[in-house]
Amino acid sequence: GKKWDERCREREREREREREREREREERERERERERERERERERERERDSVQEREREREREREREREREREIACKRERERERERERERERERERERERERERERGRERERE
């Protein structure tokens, strides 16, 4: 009976070690799974960051575009202003010319 008892305990310990190895395998498996999950999470994080980065880049591009448009509009406005100024100058010149004409007319009348 003693020998049989010995073998029985031996098999019991064997099964115990087997269960222990099984638990360790499962633990490692879960650990790898968590690691893969973290990796996927980091991947998604990078993806979101790069999407946001592209979005900010497009926003800056639109801002630069609006800035260029404002500059062009300002330039055209100044151009029109100068044009109006030249027009007024020509008008005053014509006015002075007419004034001189009238002056000469009066001169002739006095003679």
Global morphology: rod-shaped
Number of separate structural domains: 1
Poorly predicted parts? none
| Continuous helix count | 1
Q: How far is the first residue's CA from the last residue's CA?
A: 163 Å
Mean pLDDT: 95
Helix content: over 70%
Biggest β-sheet strands, sense, barrel: none
User: What letter string, H or E per element, gives the SSE order?
Assistant: H
Structural features, described:
- By secondary structure, this protein is an all-alpha fold.
- It has one domain (1-79).
- 98% of the residues lie in helices and 0% in strands.
- The protein is built from 1 helix and no strands.
- The chain has one helix spanning 2-110.
- The radius of gyration is 48 Å and the shape is rod-shaped.
- The model has no long low-confidence stretch (mean pLDDT 95).
Helix-strand blueprint:
Blueprint: H1 2-110
Provide a concise account of the structure shown.
The chain has 111 residues and is mainly α.
Characteristics of this structure?
single chain; 111 residues; mainly alpha
